[in-house]
Amino acid sequence: MNIRITHSNFSIQHSAFSVRAWSGVSALAMLVALAGCGAETKVTRVDSGVVTDLSGRWNDTDSRQTAEAMVKEALGTPWLDNYTRSHRGKQPVVVVGMITNKSHEHINVQTFVTDLQRELVNSQKVTFVAGRGEREEIRQEREEQALHAREDTQKAPGKEIGADYMMKGYISTILDEADGVKAVFYQVDLELVDLESNVKAWFGQKKIKKVVERKRTVF
Amino acid sequence: MAALHSTSPVPILLLALLLSACGPSVNRYALIDASLRAGDTHRADAIVEQAQKEYGAKNQVLYRMDRGMTLHLARRYEESTAVLDKAEQEVEDLYTRRISTHVKAFLYNDTELPFEGAAYEKTMLNVVKALNYAVAGNVQEALVEARRVDHRLNVLADQTEGTPDAYRDDGLARYLSGVLFEAAGEFNDAFIAYRKAHEAYLAAHSWSRTPIPPMLRTDLLRITDILHLTDEHAQYRQAFADVSWQPAADRQQLAQVVVVSYNGRAPRKEDQFIDLPISVDALRLVLLTKAAVGPNTNTREARAAESLFYGLNGRVVRVALPRLVPQKTAIAYGQVSLIGAEGSHSVQSELVQDLSALASKHFAEQYNGLAVKAVARAAIKYAAAEGIARGARAAAGRDAGPLVGLLVGSLAKALAISTEEADKRIWRMLPDEIQIARLWVPPGSYELRVRSIGKSGSPIGHEIVHPVTLQSGETKFFTELALP
Fold first, then answer.
1. Do A35 and B98 touch (CB under 8 A)?
2. How many Å apart are CA B89 and CA B83, to the nearest integer?
3. What confidence score (pLDDT) does residue B10 get?
């Protein structure tokens, strides 16, 4: 019996509420329906040099700009003049070694290595030789030439140029995050090591800091 | 009730209710389980892949989690990583919440919200990815996942500051990071990870059902010895006085095998319907319906029938809440052996993560909030259905009003009841428990044998055998699924 009385009260309250309830429910339904509209896909062709920071992660711009800046810095420091002077004008021979990814991202290190190699070759200030992986492939090709190519076109073994310096380094990150704001600090450390003496001829560092903000709520 | 029966359009309502009673297919998981039990991991993955549309747009993170795991079990590591990467990206995107989606979920049910996974499931994304890389022999990329999980857990610790009993760190993720850093020769990072693992196991001991793995104690002693951290080493020696350990110098020429075992299935969730009658008639109806439908009210047909009767009566409010159903493994440990020409080496795997305990913890933390929201939603749905009935009655005029009001009200209330559904989404492809075994052996060729031992002490299932060749200083990772 008590249950019926409670229910009766409940109904009376809602008879006055019915019109507002109708409009309220309709408005909510419309809002929900409108919010479900999808976004169209748009593709814009841009120059490869244009900076496109979308997610805040390491991207092609970071790789290219870091390689350019660090090689420029490396070739602008005294070790290069010192070497050229002490070797009667001969350019130093450089090989790119291991660039270790110690970051929080799966960075394609090979892209960065390629950017470094391009900058080194195009500088015309150093002689650049192939790294370990490429050398294996080239040696295999020479071995095959020795077996299959015409004698006057065969390339002889033992004529490779040994590198004077190896460029190696690390990409590392420091992350900080709170309330949807993430600060990403990239640090690229490169060094040139004298392959004969293990002396570090140059040490360069490039830092990039990005702040990524995300909204907690949108309509 | 007799009058209602004579005029009610029962078949139309029943059809409408059956159509509206949509939800994830439970059969899918039964088929996947059957395939995995038969050892056909590729078939299990194909079932998940074919069901992508069935998962629905709001459950694509769950689809990718399930798919990433079946691909991992099928040893398709690159594909698994790609799928899990996408899941992680989508989880990150879900940080931004849409008010409209939340309003819709509040009016309809929680399954309208996009699935983003519990904190422990997000951690497992990185753990599985790290294992994908590690088993494929790419320890450097596995370390990226170790760093990512470190960041994830640091953010989680900040978010749960002031609640020391919450899930705010992860023993397995920390321990696996330590193993990976040590395998890469980064001993200082390995020490930090091992130490954090020890702290995480200690902090969660009241609910995690995972005691500190004994091997973690020897790891801490070994790594502090390698790093010449004399103070820390002395502290650990004092704390683990009964532990015998081998200095790193004795292991320099050895190779290591790490076996990660996935035992059993993670818990699942079921609907738990609470039907609240708000009149004596309604109480009688609920009792009669429950008696007629029987104990299994989770079938679509039973739910449709209940919704129809309750809707026609108009005085029943339904609240749906999830119920966690554990699926505990019968396996106690794995006996891991390396048998070579020079001799054999054997070790027992140790529990490093009880995922059922993590799921229970998350469920318990969420339950009160879910219950309050479910009751509020049921009350709003009931009030809205009442309002719709009254509006329809008024609009139809004096003659047709009562009948139209009754029909529209019944339909609205039946729909309100039938749309009430608990959020049962959970990463079910995870195991119940994860165990790890580590063996250091001289380099050479071996046969790796893994045998599951039940809680009664007798072997369970088939022995798994892999040929393995090890070089000095090398660490090789293996993962195994044991479902008994």
1. yes
2. 10
3. 47
Closest CA–CA distance from residue B72 to any residue of chain A (Å):
19
Contact A218 B97 (CB under 8 A): yes
Q: Which of A10, A22, A215 sits opposite B96 (nearest CB)?
A: A215
For B75, what's the count of Cα atoms within 13 Å in the CB-facing half-sphere?
Answer: 10
Q: Tell me the shortest Cα–Cα distance from A108 to chain B, in angstroms.
A: 10
Residue of B nearest to A14 (CA): B387
Q: Closest chain B residue to A173 measured between Cα atoms?
A: B147
Cα–Cα distance, B355 to B364 (Å, whole number): 14
- Which member of A21, A32, A102 has the closest CB to residue B103? A32
Contact A28 B103 (CB under 8 A): yes
Chain B residues touching chain A at CB-CB below 8 Å: 85, 95-101, 103-104, 107, 140-141, 143-144, 147-148, 151, 155, 158, 277-280, 283, 315, 383-384, 386-388, 390-391, 394
Q: Pick from A15, A21, A219: which is nearest to B384 by CB?
A: A21
Per-residue tokens: B381: 């749905």
Contact B285, B310 (CB under 8 A): yes
| Residue A150: count of CB within 10 angstroms of its CB | 7
| Overall average pLDDT of the A64-70 stretch | 91
pLDDT value at B247 more than 90: no
ipTM: 0.74
Nearest to A32 among B100, B315, B390 (CB): B100
Q: Are strands B475-482 and B255-263 parallel, antiparallel or unpaired?
A: parallel
What string of DSSP letters covers B328-367? --SEEEEEEEEEETTEEEEEE-EEEEEHHHHHHHHHHHHH
Digit-coded pLDDT (tens) for B315-330: 777 888 999 999 999 9
| B148 in Cβ contact with B126 (< 8 Å) | yes
Q: Would you put residue A200 in left (φ > 0), alpha (ψ -120 to 50) or beta?
A: beta
User: Phi and psi of A199, rounded to 5°?
Assistant: -75, 135
**What are the tens digits of pLDDT across the range B98-148?**
788 888 888 878 888 999 999 999 999 999 999 999 999 999 999 999 999
Helix (H) / strand (E) containing B66: helix B60-73
State the alpha helices, DSSP H only, in B298-446: 300-313, 355-418
The residues, ordered by sequence, that sit 6+ positions from B145 with a Cβ below 8 Å of its Cβ are B126, B127, B129, B130, B133
Residue-wise pLDDT for B169-215, tens only, equals 999 999 999 999 999 999 999 999 999 999 999 999 999 999 999 99
